[in-house]
Amino acid sequence: MITHTTTWPSPAKLNLFLYINGRTENGYHELQTLFQFVDHGDELTITANDSGKIIITPEIEGLKVENNLIYKAANALQSKSSNSLGATIHLNKVLPMGGGIGGGSSNAATALVALNYLWKLNLSDDELAEIGLALGADVPVFTRGFSAFAEGVGEKLSPAEPEEKWYLVVRPNVSIATVDIFTHSNLTRNTPKRPLSELLTSPYGNDCEKIVRMLYPEVDKQLSCCYNTRRRD
Q1: Which are the contacts of 64, defined by CB distance < 8 A and separation ≥ 6?
Q2: By the 8 A CB rule, do 180 and 190 touch?
Q3: Cα–Cα nearest to 14, from 158, 165, 130, 143
Q4: What are the angstrom distances between the C-alpha of 53 and each of 57, 68, 89, 219?
Q5: Which of 38, 105, 135, 209 has the most C-beta neighbours closer than 10 Å?
Q6: Of these residues, 39, 138, 193, 207, which one is catalytic?
Q7: Cβ 211 vs Cβ 167: under 8 Å
């Protein structure tokens, strides 16, 4: 194949609300959440080739390449399609790791979408979302590329059009481990399910916030400052 290089956006997302409704038999959490994309993110520069190898640059300190979601996504796509093509993928990292705005999931989804196109695999959106779900619950929404209301473990997506707003995204100097939040014994896991029409007209909340603020004092301090400033205004 003729090699050529293209650059692909990998945007951040916000969970405008997130409610945990229960747990499945395999331990995953059932939830209701509203995803909104942000006009800010990473970029993946990809050179497709016929080497059969997946090369990721630059190396991320403390992360083995085989644990990199971009690498996992490319390998999963190769396996799904029995494809022998390869690619060199360079990540221009802007989004913070552990920031809760979907950086890794977005990177994986962008790799799936881009390589599906560059390798001419012609997999459907549903097939890409299925591959993505095995990599992480947030990956499917990025493969589909639209704001969405999500249920189940995040795989049941319905297009949504939340009001367009300006958002102030603040990240204290901490990296939050999602697994620590979702395995915490005090995490709320029984919020009743509600229809989207009701959720959109109710004050937004996040069942993870209490645990994050308890485990990460820096986040609690930052949110307290934001809330106090908003009340004064």
Answers
A1: none
A2: no
A3: 165
A4: 13, 15, 11, 40
A5: 105
A6: 138
A7: no
For residues 72 and 108, the answer to whether their CB atoms sit within 8 Å is yes
Residue 192 CB neighbour total at 10 angstroms:
8
Neighbours of 223 (CB within 10 A): 15
Give tens-digit pLDDT for 34-92. Answer: 999 999 999 999 999 999 999 999 988 888 999 999 999 999 999 999 888 999 999 99
Q: What is the DSSP letter of 81?
A: H
Task: Of 20, 13, 21, 33, give the one whose Cα is nearest residue 200.
Answer: 33
b/e code 125-143 from CB counts within 10 Å (16+ = b):
eebbbbbbbebbbbbbbbb
CA dist., res. 156 & res. 135, Å (int): 16
Is 144:109 a contact under the CB 8 Å cutoff? no
DSSP 8-state assignment for residue 53: -
Among this protein's residues, is 220 annotated catalytic? Answer: no
Reported pTM: 0.87
- Contact present, 175 and 97 (Cβ < 8 Å): yes
E runs forming strands in the chain: 5-23, 29-49, 54-57, 86-92, 148-151, 156-159
- Cα separation, 228 vs 219, whole angstroms: 14
8 Å CB contact between 45 and 5: yes
Token pair in block for residue 225:
């400052």
Helix (H, G, I), strand (E, B) or coil at 75: helix
